[in-house]
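Hi V.,

Quick status before I head out on leave. The structure for the redesign project is tokenized and pasted below; the design run finished overnight.
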């Protein structure tokens, strides 16, 4: 079955219903199974339900929480996707900062102010990433995924 049912949930997220035949429903035609899904799988609070085909739904789920639909197509809301991507970058950055905290403590313990200052400079570069990274240049999810701070390369 190539058809899908898409709708917006009250929280703004997109849900996709994949019609199928249950074990005891093998006698149903594809059309009957689809109609059954329309009736049984659609919650009462579903907004803007539409029928679409598989090729109108993104296959890459990286920015799944940024999906929206209008008409019969699911698309990625790039503003939401940028927020999701920045949150992922922040999570990796926070791990790197935690590791550098250990290096700072070691330098302080040894009384090595040069090492402490060098680590502090690295930490400041990491703290600055959200303000200096320009995600607005990405116009597609693929372009957005390709943007990653050099300071965090290898830590993705």
């Amino acid at each position: 079955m190539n058809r899908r049912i898409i709708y917006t949930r009250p929280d703004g997220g997109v849900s996709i219903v994949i019609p199928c035949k249950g074990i005891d429903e093998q006698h149903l035609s594809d059309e009957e199974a689809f109609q059954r899904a329309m009736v049984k799988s659609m919650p009462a609070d579903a907004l803007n339900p539409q029928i679409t085909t598989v090729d109108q739904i993104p296959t890459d789920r990286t920015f799944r929480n940024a999906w929206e639909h209008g008409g019969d197509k699911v698309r990625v809301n790039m503003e939401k996707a940028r927020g999701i991507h920045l949150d992922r970058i922040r999570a990796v950055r926070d791990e790197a900062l935690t590791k550098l905290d250990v290096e700072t403590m070691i330098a302080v313990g040894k009384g090595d102010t040069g090492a402490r200052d060098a680590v502090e400079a690295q930490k400041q570069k990491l703290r600055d990433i959200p303000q200096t990274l320009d995600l607005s240049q990405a116009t597609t999810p693929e372009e957005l995924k390709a943007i990653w701070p050099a300071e965090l390369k290898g830590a993705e």
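Above is the designed sequence. The chain has a mean pLDDT of 90.

G. will cover questions while I'm gone.

Best,
W.
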